[in-house]
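PROTEIN–LIGAND DATA SHEET

This sheet pairs a single protein chain with one bound small molecule, fe (ii) ion, given as SMILES. Inputs appear in the order they were entered. The predicted three-dimensional arrangement of chain and ligand is reported afterwards as a token string under its own label.
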Amino acid sequence: MYTNKTVAPFRRREGLMESFVGEAAVALQVLSGVASASRAFPPGRPIEPSEETLLPHEQRHAAGLMRVNHVGEVCAQALYRGQATACKREQTRELLREAAIEETDHLAWCDTRLKELNSRPSLLNPVWYATSFALGALASRAGEKYNLGFMAETERQVEAHLESHLKKLPEQDTRSREIVVQMRDDEIKHRKTAQRHGATALPAPVPAFMKFISKVMTKTAYRI
Ligand SMILES: [Fe+2]
Ligand SMILES: [Fe+2]
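PREDICTION REPORTED AS:
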């Protein structure tokens, strides 16, 4: 005869399996570039690479920067999904999953712009996704308020990073600029949402470590 005690471990294993399969499907969607945006592409109609008017060296530079932005969005998706997986509170879990979904627009826009620039996303995206997912799951174990603090700090760093890209992008690359401006405005909104829900400032070494990881990512993604 089966009792609650004998059935519970099977249910737990079944639940874990379901969540693993679900996460693997999301990861595949993010990494294969099939994710589509729910909002319109900020510059309007996507163009063919042959219609691009930037000079070759400007095009290469813009593609490097947009590839970095694309990796940033891959990392944001993975961080939030990782945090949501290990987070115990349903409301925070929902907030993290919603944030990950909203980043899908950014991911799709960067992908479209890379195609317009006759370029491609980073080859190291699977590595960045796995690392960020693990970091998110680890951060989640620090507790509820730090979970939201981690989200607010991520958004703050991405916001600063996008601001710096507005200075680095070729002046005449209005298409990339329109995308980056919209992304920056959305990240400000995401940061404020996390703060409104009770985000706590992270202990000093954590933002510094996040900054270090992001520096390694931006340096490599610009080229690879
Ligand atoms: Fe984003
Ligand atoms: Fe965001």
